Amino acid sequence: MNDSDDYACNECDLLITVPDFIASGKKVVCPRCQHTITTGLDNSLDKVIALSFTAIIVLIISGYFPFLSFSSQGQQRTISLFQASSELYSQGFPGLALLVFFFIYVMPFLYLLLLLIVLSPIKFGIPRSPPILLGKIISRLLPWAMSEVFVIGVLVALIKIVTMADIVLGISFWSYFLFAPLFTYIVSIVDTHRLWNWIEHGY
């Protein structure tokens, strides 16, 4: 087994030799653009598995409860997270509705689920062949998981309508607003170097 591997910097494509073991708190930085390639972290496998499982539960909760309610001039309306897409569909934007649903729900869910499928055998010592294809899919899914973009969009929309209606934030709202930073933190741990070390070497 090699004690180092070569990786292309995500920002400038410079080929960098990265050691397999990196002490906790230490960083590997691209010498050309100063982009952080990876950071040493204790118990990163356990953290990602636990956080991914938690994030999936929170995401599921966010889909099955009211997202927000608003009332104005005696009329009240309650919408769920899924209705954010169905409303676009009913207004004649089926393509946009599908994209929103996939970007804010399906893609993050698949990313986390595939992480658990890849990492759980490593955690429990189950023999397996390196899931190279799953690693590639995980890498391809990440740019399309846009939970944080959705959160920013909702905040902007709330600022605009808060003066026109009474807003009540539901369980789904708080669940998704917990999910978004949790998902972002998981992604920050699972950098390219760490992901492929797990896949190819099992550590």
What does this structure look like?
With 203 residues, the protein is of the alpha+beta class. Helix 1 (44-63) packs antiparallel against helix 3 and helix 3 (94-123) crosses helix 4. The radius of gyration is 20 Å and the shape is elongated. A hairpin with a 2-residue loop joins strand 5 and strand 6. The protein has helices at 44-63, 83-90, 94-123, 132-141, 147-161, 171-189, 192-201, and strands at 4-8, 15-19, 27-29, 36-39, 66-72, 75-80, 166-169. The longest helix is centred in the middle third of the chain and has 30 residues, at 94-123. The protein folds into two domains: 1-42, no CATH class; 43-201. The protein has a three-stranded antiparallel beta sheet with strand order 6-5-7. Helices cover 55% and strands 17% of the residues.
List keywords for this structure.
elongated, 3-stranded antiparallel β-sheet, 203 residues, two-stranded antiparallel sheet, alpha+beta
> What is the strand arrangement across the widest sheet?
6-5-7
Tally of helical runs: 7
Mean pLDDT: 81
Overall spatial form: elongated
Distance between the termini: 12 Å
